[in-house]
Design brief:
Strand content: 5-15%
CATH superfamily: Divalent-metal-dependent TIM barrel enzymes
CATH class: Alpha Beta
Largest sheet: 8 strands, parallel
Structural class: alpha/beta
CATH topology: TIM Barrel
Order of helices and strands: EHEHEHEHEHEHHEHEH
Number of helices: 9
CATH architecture: Alpha-Beta Barrel
Bound molecules: zinc ion
Number of strands: 8
Strand order of the largest sheet: 7-6-5-4-3-2-1-8
Helix content: 40-55%
Number of domains: 1
Oligomer: single chain
Distance between the termini: 11 Å
Length: 280
């Protein structure tokens, strides 16, 4: 099986069907589906799911991973009513991921601080930490029933929230079974918070099951989502770090922007050339 995958995040200018056409046209055989508009804004079920899956296969594609909704949707939202809604929503995407034969579903551990009132309040930070554990306690059995693994992502927020670093995330996932819970490293998120992506990969270690490979500027990184090698990250070091942990999962490219005005189609092809040059 090819190890490379391209996220539909590269094609947010069009709907999911047109995105899948473009991913396949750029030479990929696997994709990560973004679980929000304009892509999979509602998880499909029943006959809609079957016909969607058939259309994916007709393009020579498979869905390797599903990215659950983000932004306001996170395990650690600090209000219980809100958290129950998120757990329901994440459960439906875990079922959807299983339905499209994805190996993993990506979840954000904590919300974007822009959605939280008083994000610097220590009591809010404590509530977020507790909420992450409570949500995982509820979702791990769902993932177990569906045969899908949840992957927690390191996020680019500059705030006092817990679970932004791989060291903290690793100690969290150690409390849960590896078949249901792992980690996904986003290389650009790491450096946006001035953490070395290679160190983050080493910290995730044998619980690392997913990647979001994207480049950012070395100076003043802003979660840029450039194609790998177009920013300032040390890609030889990142590749060595993945080799050193015997990384078994997909090399998923989450490229969304070009620094030279490239079209989404060009970005997908440029990224494919980089992956090929790496021997993937
Ligand atoms: Zn990401």
């Amino acid at each position: 099986m090819s190890r490379i995958s391209y996220s539909t995040a590269g094609f947010v200018d069009r709907d999911v069907e047109a995105s899948l056409d473009a991913v396949a046209a750029a030479g990929y055989r696997q994709t990560e589906l973004v679980g929000q508009a304009p892509h999979v804004a509602e998880p499909l079920t029943g006959p809609d799911l079957s016909s969607f899956l058939a259309r994916v296969g007709q393009r020579g594609l498979s869905v390797r991973t599903v990215h659950a909704p983000l932004g306001r949707n996170a395990l650690g939202v600090p209000e219980e009513t809100w958290r129950h809604e998120v757990v329901e929503r994440f459960s439906s995407y875990i079922r959807f991921a299983s339905g499209v034969d994805a190996s993993d579903v990506i979840l954000h551990p904590v919300p974007n601080p822009m959605f939280v009132t008083e994000p610097d309040d220590p009591a809010v930070v404590d509530r977020i930490r507790d909420a992450v554990s409570r949500s995982l306690d509820e979702l791990v059995p769902v993932a177990g029933r569906e045969g899908t693994r949840m992957l927690l992502e390191n996020l680019p927020y500059r705030c006092k929230f817990p679970y932004l670093s791989m060291v903290e995330l690793r100690s969290l996932v150690d409390e849960y079974p590896a078949a249901q819970l792992g980690l996904v490293v986003d290389t650009g998120h790491a450096w946006t918070t001035k953490r070395d992506p290679a160190d983050e990969i080493a910290a995730a270690g044998n619980r690392l099951q997913g990647t979001h490979l994207q480049d950012v500027d070395h100076e003043d990184p802003q979660d840029n989502h450039w194609p790998p090698t177009h920013g300032g990250l040390d890609w030889p070091a990142i590749r060595s770090a993945l080799a050193a942990v015997d990384y078994p999962g997909p090399w998923t490219f989450e490229v969304a922007r070009g620094r030279h005005g490239e079209t989404p189609e060009q970005l997908a092809r440029i990224t494919h050339q980089v992956a090929t040059s790496w021997g993937l």
